[in-house]
Amino acid sequence: MTRSTDEALARAAVLALIAQAELTPKPGLADTRDLQARATGADLLALRWSAKALTPGFAAMAAAARRPGEPTRALREELGAIGRCAEWTMARAGGGAATGPLHHGALWVMGLLVAAAALRPGAGPDELTATAKRIADHPDRGAPRRPSPGSHVSATYGAPGVRGEARAAFPHVRRALDALSRARAAGATETQARLDALLTVMSTLQDTGPLYRAGPPGLRRVKEGAHGVLEAGGTATPEGTAALSALDTELRERGIAPRGSAALLAGALFVDGLPAVLSPSPVPSARGGGGRRRRAGR
Description:
Layout: H1 3-22, H2 32-39, H3 42-52, H4 55-66, H5 73-93, H6 104-119, H7 125-136, H8 149-157, H9 161-167, H10 171-185, H11 190-202, H12 208-231, H13 238-254, H14 259-278
């Protein structure tokens, strides 16, 4: 691993975050429809700038992981400090406009996966997520002690949230990767494959966002709705598209945003694109923007 590889990992992480944020239509979640409607595309530009502002932070995380070469407690604490600085920078680079689509939970997920990729270059998804788990298992003495809404919800309902996902070796990142592979093999467009991967995560994740907004009944509706889209054949079918539209309308009307699911999709897109990032001679246009590209539209 070299500094150039650290920078390549950082760019891949940023592209995955942008790809997740711009994926449309995401049920209940901010996407390009919202960004373009609010300021004739100005917020979309702010989103991209704020994401790109994370590049030095992710590169620093990769470099930090290379130094010890093992997932130590000191590494965990250094990653936490870098991540808090990176989040501050991101918010100011976008003027605060893009912090919704780039939820801070995604920074936690991506930071751990970037560090794991630097620690274990060329590792497959299982080894990569297991390495991220070993980092996340360590406490961070520098973390803010003030409870966050997510930690309050986790304590109230016993939901693990994205931190619990990390300590379980990111099972939903791996589920999303499997869903991407299945959808692509079935001939879905890249947008459809990514939406199906998101819905796969939503159908089983104990997402703290819906719990915070609407309690267990709200989370149950998110899971049932996502499962219904997949049961209808996914977003590549007319029935699945109709079910997705109905779920999107319902969640937006109720203000329920499954942001934890979106964060884990971003992590999956990053892992999906790693072979091209780490290959000495990547094939042009085979992957990029957080993963493999097929047909661009729906």
